[in-house]
Amino acid sequence: MPQINLTDKEDVVVVTFNQAQILDEGTIRQIGSEFLNLTTQAAAERKLLLNFSGVTFMSSAMLGQIMKLSKQAKQDKIDLKLSDISPNIMEVFKILNLTKVLSIYKTEAEALKAFGPPRKRFRRRIGGSRNSAEALKAFGPPRKSWFGR
Predict the structure, then answer these.
(1) Domains plus CATH for the chain?
(2) So what's the pLDDT on residue 58?
(3) Which residues, other chains included, contact 63 with Cβ-Cβ below 8 Å and sequence gap of 6+?
(4) Mean pLDDT for the stretch of residues 99-107
(5) Other Cβ atoms closer than 10 A to 74
(6) Are 108 and 51 in contact (CB under 8 A)?
(7) Are 112 and 10 in contact (CB under 8 A)?
(8) Any bridge partners for residue 83, and if so which?
């Protein structure tokens, strides 16, 4: 059973957690392996948000998984943000100075706003064509090669 849920909000991959208390070593290992796939899924958009709204407690091993994900996201040039962290967990983040290393926001809405506007997606159409065959016709007949006279 997956330990995290993924949602696409505009061009941000939003992650929520299925358990309120992330303490079990097996659960943390599974979340770690699911985190490995996150950077692949977020690679296209370059924006990833971890929403901890349902999480009330987590072990230090889970903090290690978050830091590992943060390092991987930096290597892959993915913008990682965290939101909705409970006061108890936030206190631990402050003690460990993780607030200086991670981008943390009070709410998901604030974090999404901090990512900036979504990228515009468009497909360029050549000559108004609808498929690749029509696009090639728009270029006209092939020209003679410079080398083959």
Answers:
(1) 4-124 (3.30.750.24)
(2) 93
(3) 92, 96, 98
(4) 96
(5) 11
(6) yes
(7) yes
(8) 51, 105
